[in-house]
Amino acid sequence: MNIKLGASLLSWITPAWNAEAGKYAIEKTAKAGFDLIEILLPASMDFNVKEVKKQLQDNRLDAVCSFNLPKEAHIAFYPEAAEQLIKKAVDKASDLETDFLGGVLHGGIGVFSGNPLTENEADIIAEVWAKIADHAKTRGVNIGIEPINRYETYVCNTAKNVLDLIEKTGKQNLFLHLDTFHMNIEENNFYDPVILAGKKLKHVHITESHRGMPGEGTVNWDEFFRALKEIDFEGTLVLENFSSSVPGMQQVVSLWQKSPHDAEELAAGSLQFMKNHIN
Ligand code: LER
Ligand code: MN
Questions:
Q1: Which residues make Cβ contacts (< 8 Å) with residue 28, sequence separation at least 6?
Q2: Residue from 38, 121, 146, 208 carrying the catalytic annotation
Q3: Mutual orientation of helices 49-58 and 19-32 as an angle, nearest 10°?
Q4: Measured from the CB, is residue 68 less than 6 Å from ligand 1?
Q5: How far apart are CA 39 and CA 125, in angstroms?
Q6: Ligand number nearest to the C-alpha of 109
Q7: Which end of the chain, C or N, has fewer beta carbons within 10 A?
Q8: Number of folded domains in the chain?
Q9: What digits encode the pLDDT tens for the residues 1-51?
Q10: What residues contact 257, with CB distance under 8 A and at least 6 apart?
Q11: Domain containing 172 — which CATH number?
């Protein structure tokens, strides 16, 4: 396996990116010993690449990017707006000299039509993805698409949903981005989706059933890491767990219970947990 270990900026700060908060997240991630930080791009795309690149260099830290579609860029309803916005996110990732953009790129988080995904909606999404994939290819970026649970979207809830839509596009630079929190709700187990994806799996959000310390919830980690070994996983494992010790975090990620671990403890314990499982 060829694996890099990362923390999301959400390990340290809320998603509202600004230069000062970003610098803090980069410094904390580097000090905690991660290989890279996942930078969740803001929907405003107000993000100074030059400044962030310098902060990453100063801290000898790599980065990957992610982007979650906002409601007003729900692909099935607003394909043009979505296409423009995802292309901008690809450009930011490329300007930052990273080769990966992951995230919820199938629909706006929290948008529902009231019905299951239709064939027509699936066609619209595949068309937009195909155009984005072509653009991303010219910028040297691979795209990872993250299925999320039914309470956040009706578009892609499972690995198979994403893989089927990718197949529809016929594009090679679209990949699966899994998240163990969502898998715990939507998949039969933690093994089959990884095997189904094989080399199409590029990026994983490592997070417990309650988004706290891995190993303290109900995710079947043995099953999950066994599957990663079987596919000889090459990609990134990035923490996406949250602590109530981060100011403002409880409100933005529905973390209503007080966390037993503060942000530093959670990051250090989770990094050790990942290392123990891949070695
Ligand atoms: C994003 O990575 C994610 O997992 C979603 O639950 C965010 O709403
Ligand atoms: Mn996630």
A1: 7, 11, 12, 263, 264, 267
A2: 146
A3: 30
A4: yes
A5: 24
A6: 1
A7: C
A8: 1
A9: 999 999 999 999 999 888 899 999 999 999 999 999 999 999 999 999 999
A10: 210, 244
A11: 3.20.20.150
Q: Which of 77, 82, 33, 84 is nearest to 59 (CA)?
A: 33
* Model pTM score: 0.98
| 97 is annotated as an active-site residue | no
Nearest to 68 by CA among 252, 191, 276, 261: 252
Nearest to 266 by CA among 18, 58, 29: 29
Encode pLDDT of 70-129 as tens digits.
999 999 999 999 999 999 999 999 999 999 999 999 999 999 999 999 999 999 999 999
Q: How far apart are alpha carbons 14 and 102 in whole angstroms?
A: 18
181 Cα to the center of ligand 1, angstroms: 9
Dig out the tokens for 254 from the structure: 């529905």
